[in-house]
Amino acid sequence: MNSIIAIVGRPNVGKSTLFNRLVQRREAIVDSVSGVTRDRHYGKSDWNGKEFSVIDTGGYAIGSDDIFEEEIRKQVALAIDEADLIVFVVDVEDGITPMDAEVAKLLRKVKKPIFIAVNKVDNAMRDADAVEFYNLGLGNYHTISSINGSGTGELLDAIAEKIPAPEEVDLEKKELPRFAVVGRPNAGKSSFINALIGEDRNIVTNIAGTTRDSIDTKYNRFGFDFNLVDTAGIRKKSRVKEDLEFYSVMRAVRSIEYSDVIILVIDATRGFEGQDQNIFWLAEKNRKGVVILINKWDLVEKETNTMRDYEAKVREQIAPFTDVPIVFISALTKQRLFKAIETAVEVFENRKNRIPTSKFNDVMLEVVKNYPPPAIKGKFVKIKYCMQLPTQTPQFAFFCNLPQYVRDPYRRFVENKLREIYNFSGVPITIYFRQK
Ligand code: GDP
Ligand code: GDP
Question: SUPFAM superfamilies attached here (predicted)?
């Protein structure tokens, strides 16, 4: 699980410029395959071997010209609740504004690591001007220029120091699956959880302590042991209303980060919408397992092919990652709840699939021999060897003479074959072609 860093501050101080620099625009904003506009304010980054997620809270502000003080206060409060570290951006050109002082007041009460980034320090002359930010009462600050990048390396050094080293994964160790039930407001998440675990919730343990344990709760249902990661249905926070887009995004990001399998609940009467796509994409990007539950199926009028057609439409929306189980349920009539949990457990197991290298070579080299990459500019790609990489989640490498000539369609062909032969249903996989 990655640490989450929230960038907070007034409008126009340079939050999104800093955000873009931190995530290095590694991700295309518009997905070329589906054409969907992705979330511009959430990204992943790494520095000194530490991986983390970055959220630009300002990106979710409503309106642009007016300063919605209440809005900013809410976002800072949420960042305080949900993020692991906070970067508070201020503008050296403006000095400390009343709004900055207000934000600082909120942050002074917080125990999480807080970094003040005095932005727009584009040259040494402005270094001296930054001194006044000591008066925020938050201790030391970093001077940066988000535009030219100076100082951002030092800021990242300081941030990385506060981030725990990546967890060692021990695949032999029996860990309980961690599920997060996510979806739009009113999709039926709480109803599903209540139907599943009952009002009494059969809580076996609720270990407090580390950040992660404190948001896991262990359950047993239908003979399966699993943890449910903190969701709106389990631990409602009253401070902010759920209709705030930022709130749902933040909650979704956090529960996704902390879990192995995402149970994405869709309201059958509304269909798979943009926000569902965003959550799905977050799960895929974080290499988490996914199960889609089409809830409220009791409300849908059914003819012979209704389910099949519905499923096909959803698969169109989630392309190209379509190898995902879709289960039609009703939290109200308790239809297929067993199936839902059984499927989630299966996805959890699929995600741990490890294929021995010799067997993998026997099978996959045969596949690529029968259907080699097309020659490009008279060059023939020869794949000599392949293996599943020793990574936390399924990733594969195909070693060849000319990896740069392997195009996306071929990569997809290999992925589809791999998915036909092995069971990676609900699990994002990555395939690399590497020089050998
Ligand atoms: P946000 O509203 O806090 O997300 O701010 P933006 O990132 O949109 O930046 C607001 C304005 O400040 C833009 O015109 C940026 O080009 C400018 N800006 C951002 N960072 C810097 C910087 O380091 N130096 C200077 N001179 N301008 C900056
Ligand atoms: P949440 O916001 O995602 O937690 O959604 P809720 O669990 O609060 O459900 C929203 C509304 O949908 C409530 O009125 C539920 O009674 C209703 N609902 C949830 N699941 C079902 C279902 O399977 N069938 C029907 N007919 N209604 C449902």
Answer: P-loop containing nucleoside triphosphate hydrolases (SSF52540)
